[in-house]
Design a protein that fits this description.
Layout lengths: L10 H8 L8 H18 L7 H4 L28 H10 L4
Length: 97
C-alpha cells in the first residue's frame, strides 16, 4: 500500500524493495529505505524548501483560513488547532491549567 502511493520517480526503490523476500520486507525496513532515499534526494537537490517528494499526493486546500470554521468553537476565521478555547481545554484536561 505504501509503495504503491509513491510517485513514479521512486520506481527504482519500489522495484528493489519488491524484489526482497516477503520475510525481509518489514514496515521498519520500508520506512528506513524511504527516509534514506528522501535524504539522498534532498541532499542532491540542495534541500529544496518544498520537499515535493514527501508531499506527493497530498492535496492542499484552496479555501482561505478566514473562510473556514473552527470545528471546536464553531467560529469562522481559524482552525481547531489554532483555537484559543481548544488549547485552553487541552491544557485543562492535561492538568496544566
Amino acid at each position: 500500500m505504501i509503495l504503491r502511493s509513491l510517485p513514479d520517480s521512486y520506481s527504482s526503490l519500489v522495484t528493489a524493495l519488491e524484489s526482497r523476500p516477503d520475510a525481509d520486507l518489514t514496515l521498519q525496513l520500508v520506512k528506513s529505505k524511504l527516509l534514506d532515499e528522501y535524504e539522498r534526494r534532498k541532499d542532491r537537490s540542495g534541500g529544496s524548501s518544498s520537499d515535493k517528494a514527501m508531499k506527493a499526493g497530498v492535496k492542499t486546500s484552496s479555501t482561505a483560513v478566514s473562510e473556514k470554521t473552527c470545528f471546536f468553537c464553531k467560529k469562522k476565521g481559524h482552525l481547531r488547532r489554532n483555537c484559543r478555547l481548544f488549547q485552553a481545554r487541552q491544557k485543562q484536561d492535561s492538568g496544566e491549567g
